Amino acid sequence: MMAPGHYSFKSGIDIDSKIFYSVPTSFFVLDDRIPAVIRDLITEAEGCIKMNFLTGASACMRKAIYELLILEKAEGQDYESRIKSLKNKYSESDPNLFDILAHIQDMTSDKIHEQSWDQWNSQYLRLIIETLKTVLHDIYVSPKVKTNRSQFIQELLQKVSSKQRGKSEESK
Question: Which of 96, 77, 78, 98 is nearest to 86 (CA)?
Fold first, then answer.
């Protein structure tokens, strides 16, 4: 028998997964197909917003977008031209999404520190977060889902075709 206040766990058990419960912060949960570096920054930004740490949230979002630009090898001399490069590369996505992301650059440190930016609030940051999540879904998730669905349909078609061939050979 153990003394009160002492607990024993079996070896090999991830204790944190048994104790901590994580609730997604929005209706749109980030898919594992989105690069981890970007997912982590978005999660941190959402945590900052919960605590009303708007400077931290905006920094995380700017970094997440910059990481996306690097990973996608966006071309251009400046931030806006690289966003336009992504907009052209992923023309099947809503172009307004990229226009919204281009405005994260408006959050320069002078405006943040001076609190002179009119849109400086958590609602604007939520707009940026949800917009980035949608863009990431369009880039990393939707094409793979589409490919998987097409493969599934092809497999079903092959099964149907092989059954029909089998029936036609039986009737000969």
Answer: 98
Q: What are phi and psi of 17, to 5 degrees?
A: -70, -20
DSSP 140: I
- Tally Cβ neighbours within 10 Å of residue 151: 10
Quick: pLDDT tens for 8-66. Answer: 666 776 666 666 555 554 455 688 899 999 999 999 999 998 888 888 888 899 999 99
Look-up of token digits 């630009």: 69
Among 119, 105, 121, which Cα is nearest to 57's? 121
Domain ranges of the chain: 25-146
Tokens of 3: 């003394």
Q: How far apart are CA 54 and CA 50, in angstroms?
A: 9
Q: How far is CA 77 from CA 71, 86, 88, in A?
A: 16, 13, 16
Which two three-digit tokens encode residue 132?
A: 């980035």
> How many whole angstroms separate alpha carbon 47 and alpha carbon 50?
5
Q: What is the pLDDT of residues 58-108, one digit of tens each?
A: 889 999 999 999 999 999 999 889 999 999 999 999 999 999 988 876 655
- Hunting for tokens 């079996």 — which residue is that? 10
